Amino acid sequence: MQISPSILSADFANLESELRRIANADWAHVDVMDGHFVPNLTLGLPVVEALARVSPIPLDCHLMIEDPDRWAPQYAEAGGSSVTFHVEAARDPRSLARTLRGLGARSGMAIKPGTAWAPYEDLLPELDMVLVMTVEPGFGGQSFMADQMPKVAQVRESVRRHGGEVWVQVDGGVSATTIEQCAEAGADVFVAGSAVYGAEDAAAAVDELRELAAAHRH
Ligand SMILES: O=C(CO)[C@@H](O)[C@H](O)COP(=O)(O)O
Ligand SMILES: [Co+2]
Which of 12, 171, 190 is the best mutation target for the ligand 1 pocket, counting ligand atoms within 8 Å of the beta carbon and taking the most? Predict the structure, then answer.
């Protein structure tokens, strides 16, 4: 059970110290938004490069951008240990996932709440992680969509049948009150932005989330 706090809810004026607050987490989740794929703009390659230089934990880059076929490999080169693109934006997801792995990154594929999983099941051999969004991508602090749990369970079942080591990540509205149902549905990597950075003791929030997830393991 792994926790990946989203720095979208961190203090952008002090990102290095904000990363140190979550040094006990498994990953630092970096939300890259381009103002086109989603109606919000956050940060890009130069900032990811800078974060990779100082982060005590590996970067989990979530790319909410158009044309990931062109840009995602550069996030792997910039220091993203895991790079997740949205299938809705990708022209050739299979080839992109292979390219990411070839660059030494873990390949992740994200699906929005309105996107079905079944058409993409055959991509599993190329993937290290599937990200099931539990909010509409674009902003932190939104309400958790419990209606995505059946999709998490579907992805978990596909992974079980496929037999590989593919992680199932949930992102959006994950907190101490919603993480249990995510774990029970089959998620094993949990992104939490406001629930971690909104806590006075971010490291304690990470530990609490990990314990709750472990106690409700699928
Ligand atoms: O990708 C996104 C939003 O598009 C997320 O990573 C959020 O930033 C998570 O924030 P919370 O919902 O946990 O506050
Ligand atoms: Co995200």
Answer: 171
Phi, psi of 74 (to 5 degrees): -70, -25
DSSP class of residue 173?
S
Q: Which residues line ligand 1 (CB under 6 A)?
A: 6, 8-9, 29, 31, 62, 135, 137-142, 171-174, 191-195
Is 138 annotated for ligand binding?
yes
pLDDT digits (tens, 9 = 90+) for 84-139: 999 999 999 999 999 999 999 999 999 999 999 999 999 999 999 999 999 999 99
The half-sphere exposure of 97 on its side-chain side, counting CA atoms within 13 A, is 20
Return the pLDDT at 179. 98
Q: Is the predicted ipTM greater than 0.95, yes or no?
A: yes
Q: Is the model's pTM score more than 0.90?
A: yes
- Superfamily, domain 2-215: Aldolase class I (3.20.20.70)
* Across 167-192, average pLDDT: 98
Cα-to-centroid distance, 47 and ligand 1 (Å) = 18
Cβ distance 135 to 126 under 8 Å?
no
Residue pair 107/101 in contact (Cβ under 8 Å)? The answer is yes
Residue 183: predicted pLDDT: 98
State yes or no: pLDDT of 164 exceeds 90: no
Top mutation candidate among 65, 194, 206 for ligand 1, by most atoms within 8 Å of CB: 194
